[in-house]
Structures are given as C-alpha cells and as structure tokens.
Fold:
Amino acid sequence: MTSVMSKRKSSRPTRKTTHIFVSPRLKDQIRLGHPWIYRDAVERSPAGLLSGAWVRVQSANQQAVGLWDAHGPIAVRLFSQTALPDAAFIRTRVQAAWQRRAPLRQPEAASTAYRWVYGESDGLPGIVVDLYGDEEGERRWAVIKTYSASLARVQKWVVDALQDVIPLAGVIDRSGEDWRLLAGAPPAGEIIIRENGLRFAVDVLHGQKTGFFLDQRDNRATAGEWSPGKRVLNLFSYTGGFSVYVAKAGAAQVVSVDSAPAAIATARHNFQLNGLDPTAHEFVVADVFDLLEKYHGEGKRFDLIIVDPPSFARSKSQTPQALKAYRRLNALAMRCLAPGRMLAASSCTSQVSPDAFRAMLADAAADAKRQFIIQHDAGQPLDHPVAVNFPEGRYLKFMLGQVTPRR
Ligand code: SAH
Structure:
C-alpha cells in the first residue's frame, strides 16, 4: 500500500525543474519546436547542473522543457513546449511512432525489420529504436541507441513503453562499446530478418550500428530494378544488402567490397540464405579507394556501381573534408563504369544537404570528364521520417543515373 502511495507521489507534475535562460535569438526556433539548444546559446544556468536534469528553457517570451546535458555541443534536448515528461508522456510518443509505421506492417511490405523510433522526428530526441523480427515475425527484438548520457532519465520509460505496445523477446542497448540487455533475453545467435521478402542474417549484439542499415531498404529495391543482366560493383557493401537485391533481380555478376572481413563473411552467408550461389559472385575485403584505383588501372569496367560510404563527417567542421572524399570517390567510380552505364551515389552525412551532394557530384563528374544524369533522386524510407521543424533529420541521399562520356 505504501509503495503505491509513494509511486503516485513521485509521478506528480510537481517534480523539480531548473530554469535555464538562453539567447532571445532562439525564440523563433523554440516557437517552431526545434528540439536542440546548443551550449553556446545558454546565457544562464546553475553551476554544477547534472546531465539528465529536467530543465525549463526560457528564450524571450518562449518556453520549452527538455533534458540537460552537461557535456557535448547540445546542452538541452527539448521534449515539449509545456509538459514535464513522465512515463505516460513517453508512452504516447512511442505509440504514435508505432502507428506512423503501420504501412510497413501490411503483409505486402514483406519486411520484419524497421526503425520504430527515429529520435527528434518522433518527438524522442536522441533516441533511436530499431525493431528486428525473425522471418516468421514470431519473435521480435528492439535495439535501442541513445546519443547522450542524459537520456538515461527516460530510457526505462521507453523500454516499458515498447513492451506495452507489442510483446518483445528482448530489448538490447547498443549505445556503448558493448551491448547491454535491458529486458527479456538476447537472441541466441543471428536473427534472420525479412526485408522486401529477402532474407538477411543480422547480429544485433555485435553488428555495426544496431546490426543492419535499415534506411536503405527502398533504395536497395530501386537498385534491383536497374540491375538485370548488369555487372554490378557494390562498394561499402557491409553484409551485402544491395548485393543480394541486385543478384536476386538478375544481375550478371556482383562484386561486393568492404574493409570489414566479418561483414563480407556475412554477405556470402546472405547470398546462400536467398538461394544465390556465392561462388558465382565476388567478395572482396579491401579499401574501396585502393581497389577503385586498381580496377581503373586494369581497365576493369562495370554497368552499375553502388557507392554507399560511411559518414565522412561527424561535425560541421569536417564537412569540407567529407565533400572532398565523396568527390574523389565518385569520380573514381565514374571512371570505372563502361560508357553510358549507371552510378548510384549515396551519402548518410546529415551535414551534407541534398543540394550540396548534387553540387559535389557535378564536381566529381567534371573531374572524371563525364556527364552524370540523375534519373532517381531519393532519400529515406517512411520509418525515417523528417519533422518539418527538424530539417537535420533528412540525412540520406541516394542519386541514381546514367554516366556518359563528356566531349
Ligand atoms: N551499403 C551497406 C551499408 C554500408 S555502411 C548496406 O546497405 O547495408 C558502410 C560500410 O563501409 C561499413 O560496412 C564499413 O565497414 C565500410 N567501410 C568503411 N570505410 C571503408 C573503406 N575505406 N573501404 C571499404 N569499406 C569501408
């Protein structure tokens, strides 16, 4: 009885918040609902305030509520303009995110893995949750990644909310170096997921990010449409996502390249899982830049080259360097295409806008003495939505088109 009483008491909205005063310049961005307050905009905050404290931000006549972070460039992640979040508040956001993904649960979608919570766009700043269901869709695991220590304040509420929505075999945290179990049990080994009807082995405990790059689902399907009969080079293949799609769609030969041996081993395995003979294709552990130089020198040419590198920029200041690397990479790839063949250029760097990416491709084409004609200009699938007041959420670029000689 007493425990119920104290529980009630602690969830009262009278919990303490600290007032933070930020530059009046931020008034408009707060009115629009942008979820970040950079530290350099903070004018007054109590000394020694710990990460994970709820704060009420004041900018001129505008207010908002968020979590204080004592470290890093983002000082506050805003959750609400009025309410002080509690378990019920978080549950509502998690449920709304679940509803937003309803089209992916239509049987035609034939996918058992997708992003359930995409941070700021789903009103849960700094929190990503990917859902991995086995191919029968019977057992499902949620894999959570938080981008600030302050989010420990809400993590349990998120984990509880996920389990309120659907039964989960387990909830795994991939925020730190090592995985942590937050609920249920970890998968016994790899999870065989289904994506657009294809099968992929995913190691959610040790794989990159949360185990699989779910954001390229639609773009992988597009690449498949352009690949029958083609010699395809898939650069930065990871576990062969694009490779399996193009091979299944009837590519003549697929070469998958990644610097991570474990990723290449899984790529081979993923070919087998889809009834494809890995010995009919090539799997290369190599540095992409070196390999492209080598292929170019040898006169080795392809009909479709997919370029999906990791993010080369972690911050705004690294953007010029990243653009340089993308430019060199795409120019090299263009040189390795047979005349009139196809390039699929992608980038997951949020610091590079679609316009900047297109401008970089123009430079790369000029360097390679080619013309690049974009025929398909895409971004993220519906499980990576972009809230209008958070343009930073639009990070993925995928531009596919023909590369012709320039005369
Ligand atoms: N296209 C993949 C995701 C690519 S993620 C998919 O659809 O699943 C980026 C990959 O690039 C990672 O697997 C990483 O191991 C690899 N990588 C990073 N730098 C590399 C380099 N210089 N050469 C080759 N591979 C690299």
Notes: The chain has ten helices and 20 strands. Confidence is low (pLDDT under 50) at residues 1-13. The longest helix spans residues 319-335.
